[in-house]
Amino acid sequence: MNLSALREKLVAVARSNPPGDKVPYSFEKRVMANLASLPRVDEWAWWGRALWRAAAVCAGVTLLLSAWCFIALPGHAAADSAVNLEDTVFSSVNGADLTW
Q1: Of residues 94, 82, 60, 27, the one with CA closest to residue 10
Q2: Once rounded to an integer, what is the mean pLDDT over residues 35-62?
Q3: Are 12 and 40 in contact (CB under 8 A)?
Q4: SS (H, E, C) 3-41
Q5: Which of 11, 25, 36, 67 is 20 to 30 A from 17, comparing alpha carbons?
Q6: Residue 51 near residue 22 (C-beta atoms within 8 A)
Q7: Among the listed residues 33, 51, 54, 55, the one whose alpha carbon sits nearest the alpha carbon of residue 43
Q8: Which residue has the higher pLDDT, 43 or 55?
Q9: What's the pTM?
Q10: What are φ and ψ of residue 83, in 5° steps?
Q11: Do 31 and 7 form a contact (C-beta atoms < 8 A)?
Q12: Residues 6 or more apart whose Cβ sits within 8 Å of residue 51
């Protein structure tokens, strides 16, 4: 909320309408004081809350996927994947001519 623009609009409306007998003394000053005393919105707090919630969700997803990977892999798959990794790493060296 832009308080200065709101203040200017309120002052313009107040100047266009003369005060009546029913308006209490210094009513406009009390209204303006209440507007100035409103708490400011902290945008960084909103970002901080959103990022902490996202971090919690990411941690939960990571834990679920980790548990799923450990449960889904049978016991002998670790040895097979080690052999597959070794074959993949040394595939360029196994068939290559080593004379440089």
Answers
A1: 27
A2: 90
A3: no
A4: HHHHHHHHHHHHHHCCCCCCCCCCHHHHHHHHHHCCCCC
A5: 36
A6: no
A7: 51
A8: 55
A9: 0.38
A10: -65, -45
A11: no
A12: none
